[in-house]
Amino acid sequence: MTLPRDFYARPTLEVAADLIGKVLVHETARAITSGIIVETEAYIGESDPACHAAPGPTVRNAPLYGPPGFAYVYLNYGIHYLVNAITEPEGSPAAVLIRALEPLEGQAMMRRRRQAAASLSASSLCRGPGNLSRALGISLKHNRSDLTHSTLRIEDRGLVRRDVVWGPRVGINVGVEHAWRCYAAGSEAVSLFKPGTRASRRRSQPSG
DNA sequence: CGTTCGATGCACT
DNA sequence: GTGCATCGAACGT
Prior knowledge:
The protein is an alpha+beta fold. It has helices at residues 5-8, 12-18, 62-65, 107-114, 122-125, 129-136; strands at residues 23-27, 32-44, 71-76, 80-86, 94-103, 152-155, 164-167, 181-184.
């Protein structure tokens, strides 16, 4: 079943944990692509410096202030679309970023959309927030779409509950003190899975 | 194996 | 004009 709105109208950390093991689905005329959510991050309120609501309401971050259960999609680094699910009651700006999926349906279409080499493993197809958007064909036009009533949705398929691990959010330089990243223990589809390689990436600081 | 850096577009100042 | 909630190629060990 598709997750109802009250699933999202809760504290963001609860939603972030409960989304692990649910299924993100994008249905088009051509194909259904879907995957099991194995990694999320919470972005909570104007006091969270890494949250897009930190500067207060703007045109861009308006979906964060809207009702829960809607998608907040935006372009990052000019290249990647990032998918969030709006949480908490309307007026309380918060969201969960979906960072990685284990591919379920439509793997052939995912490979086509990503123009992936045949050697690319299935667990790499939707590893990372930019990659999963590309594999599922999600773009800016999905911003503000209703995750409870649209071709882009999140379903509960009654899959076995996963062990969930919390850690610091990645890819940001502020708000690092919060352990608001959450992932399924042992999943190879989780981003930065290989210890010591991808995990050690850091943004270089301009030196004076 | 580890780390660095360019691509690329838009919101915000 | 600046700085991103990223990715992967390229380079140095």
